[in-house]
Amino acid sequence: MALLNPDNMVGQFVGMSNLPIIRQVGLLVGLAASIALGVGIYSWAKEPNYVPLFDGMSGADAAQVVTILEQGNTPYRMQGSMVAVPAGEVHNLRIQLASQGLPKSSSPGYELLDEEQSFGTSNFVEKARFNRALEGELSRSIATLNSVKGARVHLAIPKKSAFLRNQQGASASVLVSLFPGRKLNPSQVAGVIHLVASSVPGMDSEMVTVVDQQGNLLTGSGGSSAMAMGSEQFSFASSIEENYSQRIVDLLVPIMGAGKVRAQVTADVDFTAIERTSETFGPNNQLLRSEQTSEERSSDNSKAFGGVPGAQANQPAAALATPGADEAASSNTSAATQTSRNATRNYELDKVISHIKEAPGSIKKLSIAVLLDHRQQTNEAGETERLPLPDEEIERLTQLVKEAVGFNEERGDSVNLMNASFLEPELMEPLAEIPVWQEPWVLDIAKQVAGGIGILVLIFGILRPVMKSLAGFGTSAGRSVNGELQLSGDQASLGGAAQLPAGVNSYDQQVQLAQNIAGQSPKRAASVMSDWVQDGG
Fold first, then answer.
1. What is the DSSP string of 395-460?
2. Which run of H or of E encompasses 343?
3. Can the peptide bond before residue 103 be classed as cis, meaning omega within 30 degrees of 0?
């Protein structure tokens, strides 16, 4: 390239010395700025794309990671409190750091118990260390949930007292940091509560409080038992309704097809708690437990003998015996005897004492609404048409729904089955694949190509025109380059690469011009002649 020819470069710098000082300074500043810009573009193109190494590292972990990166001469960048490394090396660095136990968790767990303890460690310090280790383990367990980014657990375990009336239960507070756009449903919150309560001896689930990173209380409604009970009742009724609705859908989908059935069930649930205590006697079931009978007999001797008192009356009956006397005596004896009988009977009566507690949650009434889509059929012309269901089939499906939910007409249950044409849902566009230009290697190649284009534009758009202008000025400045005598102003130059001024064509004119130049500068003319002789010219 002519631009890199040493002779041309010397001529350019020689010609530049004849420029005004202001123009020389401007050209030097522009040249330096162009070179600096080229170096900057080259450095920017060669610089890799940096991505975060780990998210949420603590300061201590970040310091250890930076030390390991410096020892391995790995380029890194600090973006606030986050360490960023080249995108092409991030996976290898993560595996390397994981083998060394980095990053460590911000909430240490049972590894605290493995640390060496001093000889004078008190019982209080040991308990505090155990509580801290337990808090760290619970935080790690809660952080494994899909919606939870991080968690912190604070345990309040009171000291045991020898008096029962002074006993206090343990309590816990849980702070969960959720991912953007995520939330914990009531069942997940209940799971976190029972996880913490089951991990601490003597802790009741009511003593666990869960709060998210925005300060929203996730456990109950500010301690209102009535509101908490209402929420539980609503959840219970909703679960019943969902169960019945799913039964209907599972039963009708094989007949109608997927997406052709909609079912809604409204359950009127009675949450009244009733307790009854009754005492019942069974009068028809009498059992004889005991019986006691007694009989008394008494006789009156004054009536044993008949007649007027006297000698004959005082004689024995045998002495007075006469024909027909035995019958009279017998009659008088039986008449004088008295008999009394007493009976005492004890009976057992059936006695039933019942204590009945009716559990709340009984269903008082069910209201069922089912919507079925029209059936698609192909006619004789091969076209697909949507036709309503016949009344007989609707009645048959209605009976099927009643059997599925346990329809009870006595309690006022109702079923309404309707057939209508569903609107066709709009087709969802498929998820766009990750574009190629978002790949890290594409960004690196684009940076290098852009840097190369910038350097070429700098060379051919700025440096080359400047150097050409300097080269042209140096040719007309009348300097000797490599023994060649050049023109200054309207004078011609001598040498193989010299150019004659305009109007000098004949041999005599050239000789005259050479004489004039030799007269003005004999030393330079002699130098040129010496070079011609040496070159054989």
1. HHHHHHHHHHHT--TTTT-EEEEEEEPPPPPPPPPPPPPPPGGGSHHHHHHHHHHHHHHHHHHHII
2. strand 337-358
3. yes
Specify the 3-state DSSP secondary structure of 115: coil
145: left (phi over 0), alpha (psi -120 to 50) or beta: beta
Rounded to a whole number of angstroms, the distance between the first and last alpha carbons of the chain is: 27
DSSP 9-20: HHHHHHHHTTS-
Report how far residue 314's alpha carbon sits from residue 308's, in angstroms, rounded to the nearest whole number.
Answer: 10
- CA 488 – CA 479 distance, rounded (Å): 8
Lookup: tokens for 173: 């507070």
8 A C-beta contact, residue 136 and residue 107: yes
Alpha-carbon separation of residue 272 from 268, 278, 365, 489 (angstroms): 12, 19, 15, 118
- Residue tagged 């066709």 (tokens): 424
Written as one letter, the residue type at 240 is: I
Backbone angles phi, psi at 491, to 5 degrees: -100, 145
Distance CA 193, CA 187 (A): 10
Residue labelled with tokens 């307790």: 275
* Token couple for 134: 């337990």
In 3D space, the residue among 384, 450, 458, 389 whose CA is nearest the CA of residue 421 turns out to be 389
Confidence of residue 537 (pLDDT cuts 50, 70, 90): very low
- The Cα angle at residue 128 between residues 175 and 203, in degrees rounded to 5: 55
Pairwise CA distance, residues 133 & 139, whole Å: 10
Hey, how many other C-beta atoms are within 10 angstroms of the C-beta on 134? 20
DSSP secondary structure code for residue 306 in this structure:
-
CB distance 347 to 281 below 8 Å: no
pLDDT of residue 402 exceeding 70: yes
C-alpha angle 159-162-163 in degrees, rounded to nearest 5: 110
Q: 32-46, 62-76, 284-298, 411-425: which has the highest mean pLDDT?
A: 411-425
- What pLDDT sits at residue 105? 58
User: Between residues 93 and 47, which one has the greater pLDDT?
Assistant: 93
H or E element in which residue 332 lies: helix 325-335
- d(CA 507, CA 500) in angstroms, rounded, equals 12
Q: Report which secondary-structure segment, H or E, holds 465.
A: helix 464-475
CA quadruple 131, 136, 137, 140: dihedral, nearest 10 = 160
Report percent pLDDT > 90 for the chain: 14
Q: What is the DSSP string of 51-85?
A: EESSSS--HHHHHHHHHHHHHTT---EEETTEEEE
CA 269 to chain CA mean position, Å: 34
Q: Name the most confidently modeled range: 178-187, 243-252, 380-389.
A: 243-252
**Rg of the chain over CA atoms, in angstroms?**
59
